[in-house]
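Interim report, section 4.2 (structural modelling).
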Amino acid sequence: MNYSTLLIALLIALGAAYFLGRNRARSLAGQGESMHSLPTHYGALTALWTTLPPLLILIMWVMLEPRIVDALLTMQLPEAIRTASEAEVRLALSKVHNIASDPTMMGQSDLGSVAAHLVDLEQRAAILKGGVILSVILLGVAVTWRRIQPDLRARGEVERIVRIMLFASSAIAVLTTLGILVSVLFEAVLFFQKVSPIEFLFGTTWSPQVALRADQSGSSGSFGAVPLFAGTLLISAIAMFIAVPVGLMAAIYLSEYATSRVRQLAKPALEVLAGIPTVVYGFFAALTVAPFIRGIGESVGLDVSSESALAAGLVMGIMIIPFVSSLSDDVINAVPQSLRDGSYGLGATRSETVRQVVIPAALPGIVGAVMLAVSRAIGETMIVAMAAGLAANLTANPLDSVTTVTVQIVTLLVGDQEFDSPKTLAAFALGLVLFIVTLALNFVAIKIVQKYREQYD
Amino acid sequence: MSIIENHKTVGSPLSEGAKLRARDVCVFYGEKQAIYNVSLDIRQNEVIALIGPSGCGKSTFLRCLNRMNDTIDICNVTGEILLDGDNIYDPRVDVVPLRATVGMVFQKPNPFPKSIYDNIAYGPRIHGLASSRVDLDEIVEKSLQRAGLWNEVKDRLHAPGTGLSGGQQQRLCIARTIAVDPEVILMDEPCSALDPIATAKIEELIDELRENYTIAIVTHSMQQAARVSQRTAYFHLGQLIEVNATDKVFTTPEHQLTEAYITGRFG
Ligand SMILES: Nc1ncnc2c1ncn2[C@@H]1O[C@H](COP(=O)(O)OP(=O)(O)OP(=O)(O)O)[C@@H](O)[C@H]1O
Ligand SMILES: [Mg+2]
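Predicted structure of the assembly:
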């Protein structure tokens, strides 16, 4: 049985078990028993015990089956391959899988017999899997069915199971984050064994090309990341320079001045801006904005590179506007109406009220919004990759081409590479820096927003 | 219950030489009418109490008197309101000086998230009332003194106004209103968020303020109306039912609805 059939079987079992459990509870109640919980609780309990164990087994099966199969196959491989390097074993195994999926190749290779064995194994595994799952389902129904007695505290048990399921879900999210962090950290440590952290953090030359083979000429690469940090900073600064004033003023207009009709139209329109994929912004930046800036620059006699920090920053700023405006809009709306009334009641005009009462009251929240936007800008890749270029220039001139941390991570990892070369590992070190910076920004921003919330609740 | 056809306010809603005169005021929120043909005079240096069951339009009427209703899009006012003989709903009237002349204190203390000093100085700064820092200091001190708050805050003028107690905050808001030198002060349930002691202080303050200002106060507490006001106006479902001297309203009300309300039969 394949997985989709099994999943459908599980769904059917879920429904059936629910009705079975509920009806049993009802019939017991009908016989004059005083049941501890409602019939639906017994139904839910039966459904949970019927579907959760097989589901867990299924998940384990998915994870373990390939390993076990590969281990069994390895034993079947010819002596020569088995004793050779690990890489060769892996190669042979993947060949076996290819042959097994295409029966016409079966007779043509010396690995044919192993492939036949694989087909056989897979068939047996499928039968075994189906058998195990179905019997666990039946066992679950049967045991719970028998357990349904007047004094079974089904309500409490269902609540406990639900709690465990919810906990497991949140644990998955947290553990994944931790896992990513640990693996990035691990690779970054490997990198710092080859390149000193001092050189990485303070060096001003970035040229990560390393010789792939020993006989290749070329340097050992140079990993001073300062140009990348500077480029990231420059582009983010340009982006914030656009996004903060425009986004903030848009938010003020929408929340303080616009009639409700305008607001109903303009808010979704702004949110559409947030929904445009960044790659679209990217080619807009590369194909429209960058040449445009270059054209203007040339007409006034400036030397503008065709990929400029300015183009990338401008477009990134536009991308972030809805982000800033919708977050600021929220905090501005959270300023109590009574403060505005108080100000109007003293004869203040709208703009006086906005400037002197609403904005100061919303300021912490706005700062939080801006910081979240900054971390967004720092993490943005596509626009910069397309519009700002790859040259790691250390410059503050927005008309030059610069590169950023994210873009370099992408370039380091595309193409052929060895997994333990400093070039590849550098990506992890950059990733770690990015992770720490955005984490710190988000943390501070959330703290500020929280503090602000407490003030008016 | 529904509105009374052809109702004419009983008692003495009109009087000679009043500071504020409302004539045939109707207020609509969109399609819904909230105030029906209210005519009422408010005299110089008197405290008039507006009472009535919840939702009868007291706040709505009060907010007409300094055009605070302009800040609500769907709100529409007809009729005339004359301040010293000039219609404040005349299109040529600028609401900025109007609201400085007719100040407002709200139900919930709403100090700005600024220092005590800046809360008071806010109005005078906007209206350019002080020509120098010394002037401004003086206005702040005088306003706080009038509101009976000076002694409690004089050592911490630069502490945030939101850090004061509820009663102090409300007196701060009154001081803030006084600081722009109004002639009329509108108060919408100014004590409903306060404890009895803070309430007593505000009531005392209202009594003192009467010497210099004309005051209209909305209240749900009949004791409060009896303590602070000279005249009382009873609203019912958007209509002004009765206006009379306060002691008369509370001892021998003319209209049966007023009597029902003050004897606690509804509201
Ligand atoms: N902003 C508004 N939009 C629409 N209708 C409103 C608005 N404000 C008040 N109303 C309506 O106008 C009527 C009068 O309301 P108002 O707030 O003036 O009553 P009130 O006498 O002050 O009541 P309370 O004693 O509860 O404060 C009510 O029916 C209310 O629903
Ligand atoms: Mg009210």
